[in-house]
Amino acid sequence: MVTRPHISRSAVLSAAMFMGLAVTAMHYLGMASMEMSATIHWHIVLVLASVAIGIVASLIALSLLVRIRVSADGFGFARRLGAAVLLGFGVAELHYTAMAACTFAPVIGRCHRTTA
Q1: What is the mean pLDDT of residues 27-40?
Q2: Separate counts of helices (H) and strands (E) for the chain
Q3: Which of 6-20, 31-45, 48-62, 75-89 has the lowest mean pLDDT?
Q4: Which one of 81, 89, 97, 109 is most buried, counting C-beta atoms within 10 A?
Q5: Distance CA 69, CA 87 (A)
Q6: How confident is the prediction for the chain on average, in pLDDT?
Q7: Closest Cα partner for 106 from 38, 35, 32?
Q8: pLDDT value at residue 36
Q9: The predicted structure's pLDDT at residue 74
């Protein structure tokens, strides 16, 4: 998307939505795939906040990348690095918000199966 000659705001927004939802889905799919003797209970407000954080972080990073392409002042590398760092902080914030959104309740009397 960021390599196109012209990028509309709606294209940046839709790409950010897709990227933010993909990062968020990666986190929650990883959580769902854990094998443990506990059930996870989710706090929906924090789950929705983590989704929003993923989308906003993606939007900021993609917007910066689009502006870098248009800018010709010689600071491209530093701005790309800044966009990458901001996205990294956003993903970390998504992760910690998503972890705050869950509580684990032990399941008593359930055997944990291991594979060899």
Answers
A1: 87
A2: 3, 2
A3: 75-89
A4: 97
A5: 17
A6: 84
A7: 38
A8: 84
A9: 56
In three state form, how does the secondary structure of 50-89 look?
HHHHHHHHHHHHHHHHHHHHHCCCCCHHHHHHHHHHHHHH
Domain spans in the chain, listed from the N-terminal domain onward: 9-103
Q: What is the dihedral of CA 20, 25, 27, 32, to 10 degrees?
A: 170
Q: Which helix (H) or strand (E) element contains residue 7?
A: none
pLDDT of amino acid 69: 65
What's the confidence (pLDDT) of residue 81?
A: 84
Q: Which residue has the tokens 């901001």?
A: 86
User: Quick one: 102 exposed, middle or buried, by C-beta within 10 A (0-12, 13-18, 19+)?
Assistant: middle
Tokens found for residue 108: 């008593």
pLDDT at 50: 95
State if pTM tops 0.85: no
Helix (H, G, I), strand (E, B) or coil at 41: strand
